[in-house]
Amino acid sequence: MNIRGLLIITFCLIVIIPMTLFWAWPYSKALDLEIQEVNEKHLVIAKNLSTAFERYYQDILGVFSILETGSQKQVTSPEFNALLKSFQFLEVAAIAENGELQTCIFSHHDQCQPVTDKAILSLAKSTLGEEDIRDIRISTVTEAPNIDANPLLLVVKKLGNQILLGYLSTEYIIKMGKRVSFGEKGHAAIVDQAGQALAHPLASWIKTRKDMSKISAVQKMLAGKTGVDKFYSPALKGDMIAGYTNVPGAGWGVMVPQPIQELEGRAVEIDKAAIMVMLIGVGLACLFAIPVSLLIIKPLENLSKIINSIKRGESKVNLAFSFSKAVPKEIYALKMQFAHMMETIEAKESVIAKLAYFDSNTGLPNRNHFYRLSHKALAKMIKYNQKGALVFIDFDGFKEVNDTYGHKVGDELLYLFGQRLTHYFAINDLTKTELAFYDSLPKVIPARLGGDEFVILLQDVKDKQHVSSVIKDLLDIVFDEYKMNQHLNLKVTGSAGVALFPEDGQEYDQLMRAADLAMYDAKSAGKNTLCFTKPLK
Fold first, then answer.
1. Which CATH class is domain 355-532?
2. Could you tell me the residue ranges of all domains in the chain?
3. Region of poorest pLDDT, from 23-32, 277-286, 305-314, 491-500
4. What is the pLDDT of residues 65-111, one digit of tens each?
5. Does the N-terminal or the C-terminal CB of the chain have fewer CB atoms within 10 Å?
6. Does CATH place domain 33-47+172-262 in 3.30.1380.10?
7. Which CATH class is domain 62-168?
8. Does the pLDDT of residue 290 top 90, yes or no?
């Protein structure tokens, strides 16, 4: 007997029963699943934003902590002024207790205010508190029209009989909040330590520093809590569900809300789809289905147990279970094929592992692997006080190659480019696996980020001239003429941007951003050239 004969006899009832139950599945279950997904997704977004703001807060404290009002060299330093400007300080000054200007350290205007506004002075003093402490503190959001038309924060520090006062723009916080947008009205809202709006989709709420402290989610995150909450939104005039958390140290709150009405709409669509699937299933069942025999269920259960064992991570599973003689030959064949599949998977574990770390076309480390390797390499260079460079290479006009000759030729070009790259740097240590080779952190680590974007991390370099010489020679080789398998001769060019370590940054994100900007400078300069990160002015 074959499996088709059994299916003709037994399939109908097994289809009708679960389909009927599926049809009876209530709408609320679909909504519960939508809300559960929101609980996970929105909370993760809120936590990611909180991490970014915590890093920003610590950077602000770090910059402010090195200010010396008595250092004329620091006050007049263009580099230091550029640093304050990059962190969006609008003005930094040392003032007396009565608000009179003592030292103007930095101002985006021609000069600092001779006398601090009384409201600003009062807020600065209340932010510092009554105790004679020298901690750096950040105030609640306020306004100072004579400094900037937009809301801002005060960064204050006690210096003997003086107060070190900085006016900090909230532009970065607002910009980060705008990046979060999903669904029709899903957004991010950031409040200060008093519950006033720092970032919100409604510009009027930011302008007026809207007090959101009465919202339950805001109260919870200002209390230092993290979680998910439902509340009514006056802005959107509807019930919301939001993931919320706080920013340690700063005391700000971050929440990511979405109207529950949007979730209800998706749940309705799921319910409609469920009914449609049920009707289709019942129709098919009426045409073909008769109850399935236990002769099929039992061996399938055995296979299911084996699959669950594999899912739990058990590397050794027993495929030698016995069958009844009456079991259809297709089930026996399925068992044998599954056993063969498991043997094949185990034999190719190393290949599967490689796919997780390397680009399948060029064989170079992929973006995620390069990220991990770079962190280790940067830590190593810091430890041994070495210099390095991050090179960002992008083809000029690669899209035209794909459009003109097809993606197959484009992939072949990228593969050949990767081969020239590895040959130039003599990356051919056949005594190790590729994973082991790159985990040993060789002096040159190339990678493909995606598309036609490539990066190279150079370790233990001598100086800028050394890097320039190496990369110019490389570009002459890798962007020479290519002879393709389809009897094509392609001449391509590329632009490269270089960020130096540690001059342009000591962290991966800083170097990558700097190298990317330098590469765009190379593009703007006419392409087919090399540019280093421009120094701050």
1. alpha beta
2. 11-32+265-288, 33-47+172-262, 62-168, 294-347, 355-532
3. 23-32
4. 887 655 656 666 788 888 888 889 999 999 999 999 998 888 888 78
5. C
6. no
7. alpha beta
8. no
